[in-house]
Amino acid sequence: MKLLHWPFVCAFALSSIPSLAPADEPTIAERAQLRVESGLVKPLAERESNRFSRARPAPRERRVRITSSTLSIDKSGRAFLPFAIDVRFGPDWRENDIVGCVYTPNRNIFVKRGDSYRPAAFLLGENVEPVAGACEAGPARS
Q1: Residue whose C-alpha is closest to residue 44's, from 31, 30, 61
Q2: How much is the average pLDDT of 9-17?
Q3: Which of 35, 37, 67, 133 has the most CB atoms lying inside 10 A of its own CB?
């Protein structure tokens, strides 16, 4: 009788051991999206929840879109991915409320204001100057 329980005990023991297969690594685009969410969207939401002003109200929701899955290379040879942040105040989404790029090696985030790109800290209240050549694709390499 004891021998009949043995297969069930083994099956239960094996099913409770976590899989040793590696988890899928996130793609470059997924890592870039997470970086924009944690480095810009979350700090913006925290900053807006603590202010009382006549500025536009905080959106109900934001979403980050990586607008190209292909890495672009700037004139300095650094790789980046462009992104857009859409906002929702009511039932409808407003696309491209914030556009910019995130550099993949160092995870720096830049946002477009006018014709230039500034570090994302600009939207968080820091006085930072535009960075020449940021988020601008350089000539194609052969």
Answers
A1: 61
A2: 48
A3: 35
